[in-house]
Amino acid sequence: MTTEPLLEVRDLHVDIPLSHGRLHAVRGVSLSVGVAESVGLVGESGSGKSLTLRALLGLLPRPARIVSGTILIDGEDVTGLPAKRLHRRLTDTMSMVFQDSLTALNPVMRVGEQIAEAPLRRLGKSRGEARAIAIDLMNKVGIADPERRYELYPHELSGGMRQRICIAIALSTKPRLILADEPTTALDVTIQAQVLRVLRQLKQEEHVSLLLVSHDLAVVSQTCSRLYVMYAGKVVESGALLDLIAEPRHPYTFSLLRSVPDPDHRVDRLLTIPGQPPDLSQAISGCSFAPRCPFAVDACHHQEPALEPAGAAGVERRSACLRVDTAERWSEMVAEEAVSKQ
Ligand SMILES: Nc1ncnc2c1ncn2[C@@H]1O[C@H](COP(=O)(O)OP(=O)(O)OP(=O)(O)O)[C@@H](O)[C@H]1O
Q: Is the CB of 51 under 6 A from ligand 1?
């Protein structure tokens, strides 16, 4: 028996109209998130991660717009539903946590009331019930002394506490999936680890799925079991976290992994990927990563690779690279190149 994913996105395209032409920011992204699964979406700044996430909840910043794409919930295509029903279906299923908790929260409303708002207005609870739900949620996200903190305003809390409040607000509509856009980027490393722990616990204890956007592979590695790697508006590789880290099957993932600082050898391993991503307002010929790719051959500059099954892990493991058959030798090839330059 096959179980349908909770969320599936097929061939999503998002454009941003410009004064001259358009920026094709999301170029055919497909992804899925299972029930109680934590999935990461990683890539450099500008790769289209946030727009992909926001498109799912109709929260695209103006003037960005969805050009095409299909969203399925529990295997049902919801894209054709009338606007109001679609909105309700999406917001019943998912809610979002943003990077900047200070702008996400209402500065003149007590934090507890902000959590209680959805139970009160959307779920039809009484004031007392909504307050009890909010306090319970504050407990769940690890806020000590929730009765006292219920009465505080956002500026009276630390960044980590505010982000916990945002997670509690996201949970207040009883979503099955949380979309989190760089939820810990603004926090220091210790607080970041605590907030990531909260997200992991929600999955384990409440079976809430997670789609986590981050430019930081270390953050995603602590939280997710499956990854999609985005480059220039497309998914270039996907697979189980451990497979992907052990054996990257796309040169971009390979380069990204080499750029993760290793705590023991910080300086040696902190490599940046030379070059810039392409201009997405221009047509791209061939593989978008080819100009920065250490393994590109002529064909890579002309032929666009499809995202196809790659490696022993079957359909879960996909890569969009014409050179994928040489992946096992990439480390060696880079080492040889470094020696030849000496
Ligand atoms: N409101 C907007 N107006 C114009 N361009 C935009 C807008 N929002 C995003 N873009 C552009 O769309 C592309 C994708 O942006 P997106 O925010 O999805 O990237 P990202 O991978 O999430 O990176 P970051 O972490 O920097 O947000 C980028 O080139 C960005 O500059």
A: yes
User: How far separated are the first and last CA of the chain, in Å rounded?
Assistant: 57
Beta strands across the sheet bearing 318-319: 94-97, 177-181, 209-214, 38-42, 226-231, 234-240, 318-319, 308-309
> Best mutation site among 14, 22, 23, 42 for ligand 1, i.e. most ligand atoms within 8 A of its Cβ?
23
* ipTM rounded to 2 decimals: 0.94
Which protein residue's CA is at the shortest distance from atom 4 of ligand 1?
A: 16
Neighbouring C-beta atoms of residue 35, cutoff 10 Å: 15
| Residue 72: strand pairing partners | 8, 77
Whether the CB-CB separation of 211 and 4 falls below 8 Å is answered with: no
Q: Give the model confidence (pLDDT) of 236-266 as tens digits.
A: 999 999 999 889 999 999 988 876 655 554 4
Determine how many CB atoms are found less than 10 A away from the CB of residue 61: 9
CA of 179 to the centre of ligand 1 (A): 17
- CA–centroid distance, residue 51 to ligand 1 (Å): 7
pTM score of the predicted model? 0.92
**CA nearest to 141, candidates 97, 84, 90, 78:** 97
- Atom of ligand 1 lying closest to residue 233 CA: 14
Helix H or strand E segment including 180: strand 177-181
**Rounded to the nearest 10 degrees, how much is the dihedral formed by the CA atoms of 221, 227, 233, 236?**
110
Helix (H) or strand (E) holding 116: helix 111-121
Is residue 111 lining ligand 1, measured as CB closer than 6 Å? Answer: no
Element (H, E) at 76: strand 76-77
User: Distances from the Cα of 24 to the Cαs of 47, 53, 320, in angstroms?
Assistant: 11, 16, 19
- Ligand 1 contact, 64 CB (< 6 A): yes
Residues pairing with 181 in the sheet: 213
Neighbours of 207 (CB within 10 A): 11
Distance set, CA 191 to CA 158, 185, 201, 204 (Å): 10, 10, 15, 20
The 8-class DSSP code of residue 298 comes to G
Q: How far apart (Å, rounded) are the C-alpha atoms in residues 106 and 184? A: 19
